[in-house]
Amino acid sequence: MSVMSIRIDDQKRKALKVITSLEGKTISSVVEELIDGYIQKKRGNLVKWLEDEQLMGIMGLSEDSFSEWDNEEDAVYDGL
Question: Are residues 47 and 61 in contact, defined by beta-carbon separation less than 8 angstroms?
């Protein structure tokens, strides 16, 4: 499992923490639910995009950009 950091307003984070605590959930579980819903909603578009050969070429060009996100320095988070 990977670790992802996001920046949000302090007031939003505090409100989210209170709400999730009252619901017996974690912020991570709520974010994961939201991401799952978004992926499910957009899955059809993803298939269309992946079928587009031009997009595959563009994605190939961006691989180097994403490789910098996977480094030994961040390996400490892999076990979380």
Answer: no
C-alpha angle with apex 39: 33 to 49, nearest 5 degrees?
A: 170
Q: In the numeric block, which tokens belong to residue 66?
A: 């994403």
CB 49 within 8 A of CB 55: yes
Distance (Å, whole) CA 33 – CA 14:
19
Fill in the amino acid letter for 68. Answer: E
Domain boundaries, the chain: 10-64
Percent of the chain with pLDDT over 70: 65
Binned at pLDDT 50, 70 and 90, residue 49 comes out as confident
